[in-house]
Structure formats: structure tokens, C-alpha cells
Design a protein that fits this description.
This protein is an all-alpha fold. The chain contains five helices and no strands.
């Protein structure tokens, strides 16, 4: 993940504050809204990490075949990652 969890928490607080003061949302308790915003931001930002982990697992299964064929790990990583991004309809 590109950002620390503390920074994501800060972003969640700032976004929630801007939404409330801009009257885009109305709430009597800001805490739960901030927590939900924090969770949503973390989930979205961790998506690329989860996709990268899945690509590594896939490549581990084909390690011997890739070595025999002389395939580049980096090239295969990019190709598989692009396929998973399309599969999950993710925007990275």
C-alpha cells in the first residue's frame, strides 16, 4: 500500500469533515462515518496488494515451466496482473 494506515485515517477524517461542512452528508455522529470512510479507503488501497499476492501465487505454480521456457518473471507478472485487474474490474 502506498500510504500508511495513519495517513489513511487522516484522509478519512478530512474527507468526512469536508463532506459534513459542505453539506454533502448530514450526520449527528461523525465518528461512525469517519470509521466507515477509513475502512472503505483501506479496502480500496489494499486491492493492489491483494492482486500482487495472487499473481505471486500463480507464478509460483508455474515456476518450473517458466524457467524451462526462459520466460521473464517481470513480464509474466505484468501480464497476469493486467488479467486479474480486468477480472476484478479494478482501477489501479
Amino acid at each position: 500500500m502506498l500510504f500508511s494506515k495513519e495517513y489513511v485515517g487522516y484522509l478519512a477524517r478530512q474527507v468526512t469533515q469536508k463532506l459534513v461542512t459542505g453539506e454533502f452528508i448530514e450526520t449527528s455522529e461523525v465518528g461512525p462515518v469517519t470509521e466507515a470512510m477509513n475502512n472503505a479507503l483501506l479496502e480500496e488501497l489494499q486491492l493492489e496488494d491483494r492482486i500482487n499476492d495472487e499473481v505471486r501465487l500463480i507464478l509460483e505454480q508455474y515456476d518450473d515451466e517458466m524457467r524451462k521456457a526462459g520466460a521473464s518473471y517481470q513480464e509474466m507478472f505484468k501480464k497476469i496482473k493486467n488479467e486479474l485487474v480486468k477480472k476484478y474490474k479494478a482501477v489501479l
